Amino acid sequence: MTEEKPQKLKLKRELGMLGAVSLIVGTAVGSGIFMTPQTVISSIGSPGASLVIWASCGLLAILASFCYAELGTVIRESGGEYIYILRTSGPVLAFMLIFSSVLFVRPAAIAGMGLSFATYVATPFYGDCPPPVLVVKCVAAAAIITLAIVNCMNVRFAMSIQVFFTVVKVLALAGIIIGGVVMLIKGHTENFENSFENTNVGVNSIGIAFYQGLWSYDGWNNLNSVTEELKRPEVSGRVFRG
Q1: Backbone dihedral region of 167: left (phi > 0), alpha (psi from -120 to 50 degrees) or beta?
Q2: What gap in Å lies between CA 197 and CA 168, rounded to an integer?
Q3: Within its chain, how far is the Cα of 25 from the centroid?
Q4: Dihedral angle at the C-alpha atoms of 209, 215, 217, 218, nearest 10 degrees?
Q5: CB-based burial of residue 125 (10 Å sphere; 0-12 exposed, 13-18 middle, 19+ buried)?
Q6: Least enclosed by CB within 10 Å: which of 70, 73, 149, 173?
Q7: In the prediction, which pLDDT does 1 show?
Q8: What angle do CA 49, 25, 130 make, to 5 degrees?
Q9: CA torsion, ordered 137, 113, 147, 229, to nearest 10 deg
Q10: Which residues lie below 8 Å from residue 69, measured CB to CB, with a gap of 6+?
Q11: Per-block average pLDDT, block size 10, for the chain (242 residues)?
Q12: Three-class SS of residue 105?
């Protein structure tokens, strides 16, 4: 009698192209883009330098996403940074990464996004007054718990929610962009006169501005965490590589 080989646990491939795009766009277009612009311009000190910071952060995010698209087609395993470091540098560094990510990095990022979301949700109910801290924290906790339950229930349902909120956020950004273009057409260009005046060239100012900008672009690497759930990862990789 021949011994039966143990079956390897595999994830269901339920993510299509629309879900993959929504996972990247919906995560990248998160709370950061609606909250960090004022921090960037206050840190760097001028509109012109602020635009340079945003363009530089966008270029870095694009280059990094191209690298991840290539890695995702070569190493077709879920786990993102963890699996890449595990395969290239060994289990010790991979454990250090996942340890810090699970205990510190990811919870802090989720808490930040939850608080940002809760602030926007609660603010309309309090008029000119800022919403109470307790209310903001409760709304943030409820949102985080709700999303955790949705993601645990079903991948397809979670992706449907992701697609919906991606469309909403893209439409909100489109409205802001169109409003800005309309203001420019009407002749409100005073912010572009001497646009680099009062620029802060200190290391701290530039570093804070870059940190805020890169946080707004964060999310381009999330798709690689679910590579094994993509229906055709090689097709998605070719699309994102262009």
Answers
A1: alpha
A2: 36
A3: 8
A4: 160
A5: exposed
A6: 149
A7: 47
A8: 65
A9: -160
A10: 236, 237, 240, 241
A11: 59 73 79 80 90 93 88 83 89 92 88 87 87 93 91 81 86 88 87 84 90 86 79 58 52
A12: helix
User: Which token pair is 51?
Assistant: 């635009």
Distance CA 49, CA 55 (A): 10
Say what the pLDDT of residue 143 is. 92
Cβ–Cβ < 8 Å for 166, 26:
yes
Structure tokens at 40: 């960037």
The size of the chain, in residues, is: 242
Cα Rg of the chain, angstroms: 21
SS (H, E, C) 185-222: HCCCCHHHCCCCCCCCCCHHHHHHHHHHHHHHHCCCCH
